[in-house]
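A brief tutorial aside. Many learners find it easier to grasp structure tokens once they have seen a single protein encoded end to end. The record that follows does exactly this for Ig-like domain-containing protein. Read the sequence first, then the structure, and try to relate runs of similar tokens to stretches of the chain.
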Amino acid sequence: MTVLGVVLTVFCSQVCSALLPVSGLYGDTVALPCDGSSYRLTPEEKKIILWETSDRRVVEFNRGLNRTGPGFDNRAELSRERIRDGDFSLILHNVTFSDQDIYKCRFVDDKSNRKFLGDAKLTVLGHEDNISLSCGDPLSVPLRTQQAVELWFRPEGGESRRLCSVLDSTVTPDSSRLKVQDQVLKISSVRAEDGGTYTVQDSQGTPISTVHVTV
């Protein structure tokens, strides 16, 4: 092999790994894979594993402890048991649209060199359901978040209109038919004209949950 071939082989072994696509539903838990089998036998007291994006530190596993970056407290972690088996996958809980990014996994050796192990692109999707109801039945629309949202309704063959906004279980404008309980918006006693599509949108107008209702 030529010197150039050796250089290219070494270079690609470090940076040419395939970008892994990972998708998850809003609010769910996802795992972003990272193969750390090359460092499986490294003593735990010397293991430092870093997950980050281009502008955010997500989590650092340092000698048995997870240290999360801003915005990832109680949401990002690496499993100590999996790490012992050479699995450096990032576990990310309660994913939101703002988590969509490219995540990079690195191993930090005893000389503070960051060894690139792989990266994954996270895509977060909204939920979608189809429901058939009879007149008089209650309708439950999952909000799936405690953040401020808006509920939009589009009747069959009609145009979308904003029904209400929800924040901290408070519905605006107030309505005797609308009630929030356990992050679920409940509409009492549906009528034939209530059939259509209900969409829960976040503050950026991105659909978190879409429910198609037939009455």
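Self-check: The CA atoms of residues 49 and 107 lie 5 Å apart. If you spotted this yourself, you are ready for the next section.
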